[in-house]
Fold:
Amino acid sequence: MPAAGLRWLVRVKPRVLLENEAFRDAIAALVPASRRAAFAARTGVRLEDAEEAVIAGYDLATVYGVRLRNPEARRALELFREHLRGGGELAEAAPELSRVTGVSGELPEALVRVGERTVLVARGDVTLARVAEAFALGLLRRSPPALRGAALSRLPETTRDSLATLYVPGPFEGEWTTAALGLLGTTEALSISLSPGGARTLKLHLDARGEFPNDAAERLKATFEAIAASPTGSVLGLNQPAEAPTVRVFPGRLELDVALESAPIAAGLRAAISAEVWEILNLPTPTPH
Structure:
């Protein structure tokens, strides 16, 4: 995925998430086995076999990528063609590299297959699929991929135990410059990651790079407390962390760590995504009269 034009990127390890003892039950509540099976039937991608998945937002497109444990990329391509108008247009730049482009509904889409275990889908601006293809062919050696771009390259590599990481490159503009008590105005790159903690807990780690004011630690802690006290923070259980947050400041770097209970996070996400109103408000399920 290219660095140019990137707005945000999420990197997840679905298989490890589903196998993680601290988060397994929470994931089952959020994404039941029946939904995972339906997703696999439609896309050819079993989340249980997805070693790594990424979702990236650009101005005109969203890009999805997955690296599979089993050689299912060709099946994913064929299933993708089934939902394109007329089956789309297939091109093969190399024996191990295929691209299909077409329209689904009113939106252009493209899928790139790299080998037997990697697929990437672009929705909106299908030029990004061609860029991914060029990266795979080694034609863009002077153009950095997303995590090697000028902003995100300042952030450390994700740790081996990381389950999910959000990356946001700076600079932040407009109203965003005043967010986090003004900290985002001087932030050049930001990442937030989740990794296993103790029993049924997750560690949230925030890493920001930039030139921060002397009171940056106080501002960051106050920002987290304000988010935790908000309705969204309450739903996700941020207002009741397993351990109090800690903030560290280094030259050009700002970090926050906090331990969170995994069950409230999953329950909150489920409430935001699919729960009925009475579930969100913790009210008895109404019965018809």
Observations:
- Residues 5 and 59 are 7 Å apart (CA to CA).
- The longest helix spans residues 216-229.
- Residues 150-273 form one domain.
- Residues 276-283 have pLDDT under 50 and may be disordered.
